[in-house]
């Protein structure tokens, strides 16, 4: 058991001893069409140590170059992006509780699983798969479904979700629904076909969210007809959210409906834009209990803690005001729950949650409240740590759904 | 004893008043049917036993029409402050749309502002010819002839030059329904077999004198396509909500009628019939300000701070801001919390210098001590605007002569029918 744990730990840490055979195996898979995309995904997310090994192997130059570029790009995203947490299971029977705990510990998440029989045993043989895929494999075995965009995730027993899904690094894209609509306004007829995707990511990854823009390379039904309209109408504007939420929908519009005789969508392939902060400014505010206000200057902006007042018996609300030197920065600014951390007595770390947000683009300001739960100790935390996302970088996330049934 | 009186009433009531009107209910012409319903309703309470006796023997639509007439008679006695609808006859070939709408306003009191139509230097004369039309039916006919589009915003009728849309329409009493669009959708969410749905958007418009306080979702009682298929949705047990996308809309003036998809190859909906239930004011507490000096209108500052007390409510004129076209009231009560007061329906009437009427938009909110009711008003200055057409100078602030605020303390439900025939499915 100890040896197995050590091997698993080594796999997760990217141990150079175990990395070499993995890189060689993935390099081999790059040659096969069926395994190419997955192998490329793994190699990209194994990062620079794998690239060094890959460069010594016989790999097609174009594939090597694209992997090299994406590794370099991912490094520019800093702490906002990272490789997926991966999991391996050796096929031995384990109870559901143990399987889920491995995911919880490995990915730093907590599942709500009150209604599940955690003693049921299941055997899974999985090798080096990312968190979302591992969770889906367990759910398939144990007839569990969940909404991936809920935080925390509630696992519900009874049936398995049949929504098609694809994985890329720490990101999962779920095909949420297909909507064929014919709207007659007594003057004209609008035919619309819409594919709604849901984009979610692992907890350690912190994008600002999808922009809503998508590049489609192929959408075909099983009769071979292309569903992409030319020219494709631009997507509607996305509302400017004030909060970085966990998962968001992306609509694929500008499509025609599949042929009447088709039973499947054969392929939906393209990339969607996921927006990341160009950098993150860390700010620490020490709380003076007699006067819990503070002003911190960061590059191009001033962050002010205007008040930090107890709210009934459960905690306190901190009111922040950010003023940007460039008012345009306020227009796209978003803050998330993971960006605020309260350090309580005894260095206990507690995540905040965002209450209200408001922005005034003309004045270049963004205001928000962050709530703190004191968990029984009726005192303010000694420190607040904030991550202020700045600027914007777009990462294109590829997806390819195959053989989606039109039931 | 009561049954005896009912039989006696039935015997004493002239049968020949009901008989011809009841025959009209079997007509295939919708205006004729609902004209007959209105005339049956006008017979008053004495007609109720006979209407209900006939309804018992009748079937299908006719039974519903007879029951509607009986219900209308009962509701009429409970609705206060809503005038009976007037029927209009108009024939003209030498007047433009503004002149025609002006006459309609004079004849019916329909609150319509015409500012948006006044930019045109020369408006064409348009022919209109209608008999015994309801105010809204006449209004729609004039707008159609003059190519003026009609919108309803916050309970007020708005008019815009051009883009009149030829939509399926139905007129009844102070109300007007129109179908905006319909949508056939097929949705696969991978959780259950793909679901096909057919929804028709229906909008209700009204004469502001009979503005509903609340709405409930319309009910369709009959829907048939031209192949004879019933499009009524089967009654369904309430489904457990497990989808965050399933957000139910608050019932309002615009609603989506949920139906089964028509048969393949069908070209029209033969009948679409149902009712929309609205709440109308039954009792209200009304106070007025600015009536003291009849000789000249009070200054705005003189109105500010005035207080009236009525039926447990204290109503104070908080702010009068003529330049912003609004008046703010503070309403409080010893029996009700400000938040509860703000949820009551309010009505307002603001009259300007010279007796000029306005239309009002009301938005209540609550603070710690009182409900704050903001009344925004818009003058209907037909004559002045006609004289000054094309003048871009901002008008001087209006002078308020009289303000009336009503709090609706009880409502009466009323079923407003709608019926469409031969709605084309392109």
Structural write-up:
The complex is a heterodimer of chains A (407) and B (426). Chain A has 407 residues and is α+β, with helices and mostly antiparallel strands. Chain A is 23% helix and 42% strand. In chain A, the strands form 7 sheets. In chain A, strands 14-15-16-20-19 form a 5-stranded antiparallel beta sheet. A 4-stranded antiparallel beta sheet of chain A has the order 7-8-9-11, with no helix packed on it. The radius of gyration of chain A is 24 Å and the shape is globular. Chain B is α+β, with helices and mostly antiparallel strands. Chain B has 10 helices and 18 strands. Chain B has helices at 2-12, 15-24, 30-41, 48-57, 60-78, 97-108, 135-145, 300-303, 338-342, 382-387, and strands at 87-95, 126-134, 148-153, 156-161, 169-172, 175-188, 195-206, 214-215, 219-225, 254-259, 268-289, 307-310, 313-321, 326-333, 346-352, 356-366, 371-379, 400-424. In chain B, helix 2 runs antiparallel to helix 3 (30-41) and helix 3 crosses helix 5 (60-78). Chain B is globular. Mean pLDDT of chain B is 83; it is low at 1-12, 243-247 and 383-391. The A-B interface holds A 147, 161-164, 175-187, 189, 406-407 and B 165-168, 179-191, 193-194, 244, 424-426. Strand 8 (171-184) of chain A pairs antiparallel with strand 6 of chain B, so a sheet runs across the interface.
Q: What average pLDDT do the residues of chain A reach?
A: 88
> Remind me, CATH topology of the domain at 281-412 in chain B?
Immunoglobulin-like
The global form of chain B is: globular
The separation of the N and C termini of chain B measures: 59 Å
Instruction: Indicate the structural class of chain B.
Output: alpha+beta
* Regions with little confidence, pLDDT below 50 for 5+ residues of chain A: 1-14
Largest interface in this structure = A-B, 21 and 23 residues
């Amino acid at each position: 058991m100890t040896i197995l744990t050590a091997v698993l730990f080594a796999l997760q840490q990217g141990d150079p001893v175990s990395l070499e055979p993995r890189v060689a195996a993935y390099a081999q898979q790059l040659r096969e069409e069926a395994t190419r995309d997955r192998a490329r995904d793994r190699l990209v997310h194994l990062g620079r140590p794998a690239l060094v090994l890959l460069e010594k192997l016989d790999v097609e130059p174009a594939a090597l170059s694209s992997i090299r570029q994406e590794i370099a790009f991912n490094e520019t995203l800093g702490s906002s992006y990272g490789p997926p947490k991966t999991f391996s299971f050796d096929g031995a029977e384990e109870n559901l509780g143990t399987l889920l705990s491995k995911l919880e510990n490995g990915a730093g998440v907590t599942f709500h699983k009150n209604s599940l029989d955690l003693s049921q045993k299941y055997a899974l043989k999985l090798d080096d798969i990312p968190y979302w895929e591992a969770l889906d494999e367990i759910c398939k075995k144990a007839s569990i479904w969940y909404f991936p965009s809920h935080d925390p995730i509630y696992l519900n027993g009874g049936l398995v979700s049949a929504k098609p899904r694809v994985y890329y690094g720490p990101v999962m894209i779920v095909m949420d629904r297909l909507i064929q609509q014919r709207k007659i306004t007594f003057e004209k007829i609008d035919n619309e076909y819409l594919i709604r995707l849901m984009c979610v990511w692992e907890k350690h990854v912190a994008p600002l969210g999808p922009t809503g823009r998508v590049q489609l390379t192929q959408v075909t039904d099983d009769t071979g007809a292309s569903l992409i309209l030319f020219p494709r109408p631009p997507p509607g504007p996305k509302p400017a959210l004030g909060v970085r939420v966990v998962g968001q929908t992306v609509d694929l519009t500008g499509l025609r409906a599949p042929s009447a005789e088709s039973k499947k969508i054969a392929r939906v392939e393209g990339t969607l834009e996921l927006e990341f902060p160009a950098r993150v400014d860390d700010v620490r505010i020490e709380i003076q209990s007699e006067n819990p206000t503070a002003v911190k200057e960061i590059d191009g902006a001033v962050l002010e803690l205007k008040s930090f007042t107890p709210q009934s018996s459960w905690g306190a609300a901190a009111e922040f005001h950010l003023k940007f030197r460039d008012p345009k920065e306020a227009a796209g600014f978003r803050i998330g729950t993971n960006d605020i951390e309260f350090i309580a007595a005894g260095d206990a770390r507690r995540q905040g949650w965002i209450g209200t947000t408001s922005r005034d683009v003309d004045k270049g300001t963004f205001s928000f409240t962050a709530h703190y739960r004191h968990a029984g100790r009726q005192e303010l935390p000694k420190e607040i740590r904030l991550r202020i996302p700045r600027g914007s970088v777009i990462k294109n996330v590829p997806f390819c759904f195959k053989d989606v049934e039109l039931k | 004893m009561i049954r005896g009186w009912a039989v006696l009433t039935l015997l004493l009531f002239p049968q020949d008043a009901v008989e011809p009107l009841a025959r009209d209910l079997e007509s295939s012409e919708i205006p004729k049917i609902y004209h007959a319903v209105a005339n049956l309703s006008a017979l008053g309470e004495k007609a109720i036993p006979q209407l209900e006796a006939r309804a018992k023997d009748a079937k299908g639509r006719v039974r519903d029409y007879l029951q509607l007439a009986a219900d209308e008679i009962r509701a009429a006695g409970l609705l206060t402050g809503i005038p009976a609808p007037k029927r209009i006859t108009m024939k003209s070939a030498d007047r433009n749309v503004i002149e025609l709408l002006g006459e309609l306003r004079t004849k019916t009191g329909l609150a319509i502002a015409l500012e948006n139509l006044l930019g045109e230097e020369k408006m064409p004369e348009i022919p209109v010819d209608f008999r015994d039309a309801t105010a809204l039916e006449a209004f729609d006919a004039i707008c159609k002839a003059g190519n003026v589009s009609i919108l309803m915003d916050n309970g007020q009728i708005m008019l815009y030059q051009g883009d009149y849309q030829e939509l399926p329409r139905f007129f009844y009493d102070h109300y007007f329904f129109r179908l905006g669009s319909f949508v056939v959708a097929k949705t696969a969410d991978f959780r259950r077999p793909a679901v096909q749905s057919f929804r028709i958007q229906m909008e209700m418009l009204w004469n502001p004198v009979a503005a509903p306080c609340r709405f409930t979702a319309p009910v369709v009682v009959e829907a048939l396509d031209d192949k004879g298929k019933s499009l009524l949705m089967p009654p369904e047990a309430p489904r457990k909500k497990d989808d965050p996308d399933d957000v139910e809309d608050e019932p309002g003036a615009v609603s989506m009628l949920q139906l089964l998809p028509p048969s393949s190859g069908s070209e029209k909906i033969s009948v679409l019939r149902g009712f929309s239930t609205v709440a109308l004011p039954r009792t209200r507490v009304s106070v007025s300000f600015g009536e003291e000096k009849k000789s000249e209108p009070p200054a705005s500052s003189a109105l500010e701070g005035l207080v009236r007390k009525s039926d447990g409510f204290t109503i104070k004129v908080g702010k009068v801001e003529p330049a912003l076209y609004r008046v703010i009231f503070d309403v409080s009560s010893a029996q009700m919390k400000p938040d509860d007061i703000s949820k009551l329906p309010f009505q307002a009437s603001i009259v300007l210098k010279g007796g000029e009427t306005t239309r009002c938009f009301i938005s209540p909110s609550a603070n710690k001590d009182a409900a704050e009711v903001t009344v925004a008003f818009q003058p209907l200055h037909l004559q002045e605007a006609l004289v000054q057409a094309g003048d871009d100078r901002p008008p001087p602030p209006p002078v308020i002569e009289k303000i009336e605020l009503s709090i609706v303390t009880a409502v009466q439900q009323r079923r407003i029918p709608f019926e469409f025939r031969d709605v084309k499915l392109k």
